[in-house]
Amino acid sequence: MCIFCDIVEGKIPSKKVYENDYVFCFDDINPVAPVHVLVVPKKHFDNINELANSPEGALYSAEITKAVAEVAKIKGVNGAFRTINNCGEGAGQTVMHVHFHVIAGADLTEKLI
Ligand code: AMP
Ligand code: ZN
Question: Which of 31, 32, 93, 105 can bridge 86 by disulfide, Cβ–Cβ 3.0-4.6 Å?
Answer without folding.
Answer: 93
